[in-house]
Amino acid sequence: MSLTVLITIISLSLLALISSVILYFIAQKFKVFEDPRIDEVQAILPAANCGGCGFAGCRNFAEALVKAETFEGLNCPVGGATVMGSVAKLLGKEAPVVDPMVAVLLCNGSPEFRPRTSKYNGASDCRISHNLYIGETDCSYGCLGLADCVRACAFDAMYMNSETELPVIIDDKCVACGACVKACPRKIIELRKKAKKDRKIYVSCSNCEKGGPARRACKVTCIACGKCVKACEFDAITIENNLAYIDTNKCTFCRKCVTECPTSCIIEVNFPPRKPRIEVQAEVVNDNPNV
Amino acid sequence: MPKTFPIGGVHPPENKITADTAIELLPVPSSVVIPVSQHIGAPAAIIVNKGDYVKTGQKIAESKGFVSSNIHSSVSGKVNKIDSIIDTSGYKQTAVFIDVEGDEWVETIDRNSEIITEVRLSGEEIIKKCLESGIVGLGGATFPSHVKLTVPAGKKCDVLIINGVECEPYLTSDHRLMLEKGEEILTGVTILMKALKVGKALIGIENNKTDAINHLTKLATIFSGVTVHALKVKYPQGAEKQLIKALINREVPSGRLPLDVGTVVHNVGTAYAVYEAVQKNKPLFERVVTITGKSLSRPGNYLVRIGTPVSWLIEAAGGMPEDTGKIVSGGPLMGKAINNADVPVVKGTSGVILLPKDESERMEISRCIRCGKCIEACALNLEPYLLMTLSEKGLFEKAEHERITDCMECGSCSYICPAGRPLLDYIRLGKTAVMKMVRERNMK
Known about the structure:
The complex is a heterodimer.
Chain A: H1 2-29, H2 36-44, H3 57-67, H4 80-91, E1 101-105, H5 126-132, H6 148-152, E2 158-161, E3 166-169, H7 179-183, E4 189-193, E5 200-203, H8 211-217, H9 227-231, E6 237-240, E7 243-246, H10 256-260, E8 266-269, H11 279-287
Antiparallel strand pairs in A: 1-4, 2-3, 5-8, 6-7
Helix pairs in contact in A: 2-3, 2-4
Chain B: E1 23-25, E2 31-35, E3 45-46, E4 53-54, E5 59-62, E6 71-72, E7 77-86, E8 92-100, H1 123-132, H2 145-149, E9 159-163, H3 173-180, H4 182-196, E10 201-206, H5 210-220, E11 226-231, H6 240-248, E12 263-267, H7 268-280, E13 286-292, E14 300-305, H8 310-316, E15 324-329, E16 336-337, E17 351-356, H9 357-360, H10 373-377, H11 384-392, H12 396-401, H13 412-416, H14 423-443
Parallel strand pairs in B: 1-14, 9-10, 9-12, 10-11, 13-17
Antiparallel strand pairs in B: 2-8, 3-5, 4-7, 5-6, 7-8, 13-14, 15-16, 15-17
Helix pairs in contact in B: 1-4, 3-5, 4-7, 11-14
């Protein structure tokens, strides 16, 4: 009895020893060299796997970073300057300064301003609605309101506002990965440069039609009147295809165009309230000796 | 046993409410809107200006390129403006707005109702006449007829097929036309045969229209080469490939045209339009439209001028019922809901259906239960559930491999799905994406 046990133990141990020796040599023969820095870089990256860098996930991007000679054109929008800085330090390279961006919706056509002229009853998917017809409103450029962008967002940075029927972007959560930009069939989400205190001034409209038909479909549309272009002292505004566009590189946030716009399609965000101009008059009234 | 196509198909309730209502002449409205793109292919170029006086039948837009068609004014009056409108396709496009003044026809049109059966024009002259008169396929696809009549070198056509199937529920415009204009249609068929240089023509009619079958069979005895065939009622028998299979048992391969199997299919409505163009010199500016709906007080078949607002048609049919939930232009399966009642009737409008609210809402979407009914219903042997999933996930290469571009969008799968899944919605999306992909690949 004890002999059987002994034979079993010895034979199995021998078998294990032989296999391990074979496996060792095979492993040596087929060894794939992998730069250990890839793992280190990957550990620094945010592991969001959002694809915002243009690569298939963080691992793929880490490989590209290690292989790359310069960091030109390589950027992790999620991690931003801090992550790219530490990766650059690790690899002994320099990270170019990339401005942080944020997604902005170029449509302000809530039902209040852009009346619904039909009811869409098909599958709840912007792509399908876009493929099928002009949409629930008479504007063939604006938001369809079926939330393809919200579903595409991996950072919970978007939600649908039930009142305006438009998606809302939460600036603090948006990492500018561009998933929503790709998801939108009408191409009305733009990545714009982030400014101080998250301030924004932009033309919230995508309608390329002439003033008349555009205005008939929506009250807050850009009619390409050119008033903002004249008001801007910094040549930051251009009109192309019946649509004004504000260049973030030239805009100084003076807000002159905002008050000039007759359809209020230029929007200012995160600014302190303007000083009411009637204040001066109020003082005059108080000075009246009759009071 | 009447013939039919072997694979797939569905049989929705027929609801042919207006089958016994004779074609009526719809009064000319006070203004019409004529879109410049009423056909497949390049939009026509407008040749009139604002303020111009046009006569009924006068050309107002010229065809641009080979696959395109002329557009004629359907009324006499002044061009009010040229502007964009949302038409039955659901998109914006350019249209000519005309304010009606009287009804003065172009002098060359023969308005005598006498039937001329003798065909004087040669084959080439007939094709030219079709192009000149703006004839397009009136079954709904609106493909320019002169293109279909021009047999390219190296191809041969030995039999003409005439589509009198009208497989869509509700619609009866072709049915009424066959009953009331039988002789004209058969003359039209003879004209088409002459243009195509074929000696044989088969008219396929589903056997829910026995009166039309009997009527045309009796008339066809005096027209040589024309025979009438009864077909079993099954949707989508009116689709070219299915009709060819049912009538002459030839199969059009994937991605090919009927001409590749030696045949051409034309609709009975087109045959009538060809008759009018060739024998009466009358361009295509009016067509028979079925206006129907369960709650409509006076549904019927009307001879309508192109450009007439749908609302005018509804008014003639007794006004819009209270419970209307959706207005569909075309048949209930392949037609499209329209944005508003002001869109104009175009060459492809075979019918207008006013669906009550309870019938117009979609079913609630639930999960696929893998019953396979969509596969059974597909007349092209596709797997709709798979194509939908691939399109939804954006896997367009795989969808192409699964032959998504073969889909003719008949809607049988969506109709039959017990889970109310938007199969065709997604397949259409995938088809567009794949076709774009293929175009880009061919460009390289």
